Amino acid sequence: MIPPKVKEVVATNDYSLIVTFDNAVIKQYNMQNMIEQPRFLSLKNKALFMTVSVDMGGYGVSWDSEIDLSENELWTQGIEV
User: Fold this and answer.
1) What is the pTM (predicted TM-score) of this model?
2) What number does CATH give the domain 6-80?
């Protein structure tokens, strides 16, 4: 199954992402454990974490050119709200 594309993303103060997909499903993706991994360590800076945006075409979300998550990861690991 091809995951739906990301339409909107909102970062929360508790290091979660609220992701709206183009099929109108909304999922919460918890990043609290992930920000301890070297790749995501800079996201401990809450100001940076809050700058998340949807990638062009809805293929995921990103913070900068090196930190991103795919729509598949968000879809399969997110919890529907």
Assistant:
1) 0.94
2) 3.30.2020.10
As given in the structure block, the two tokens for residue 81 are: 């709200």
Q: Which residue has the tokens 């508790």?
A: 14
Residue bearing tokens 């800076």:
45
DSSP, collapsed to helix, strand or coil, labels residue 11 as: strand
For the chain, the structural domain boundaries read 6-80
pLDDT digits (tens, 9 = 90+) for 4-29: 999 999 999 999 999 999 999 999 99
Distances in whole angstroms, Cα of residue 68 to Cα of each of 53, 73, 81? 9, 10, 22
Positive or negative torsion for Cα 51, 31, 11, 2:
positive
Q: Which residues of 14-27 are buried (b: 16+ CB within 10 A; e: fewer)?
A: ebbbebbbeeeeeb
Count CB atoms within 10 A of the CB of residue 75: 20
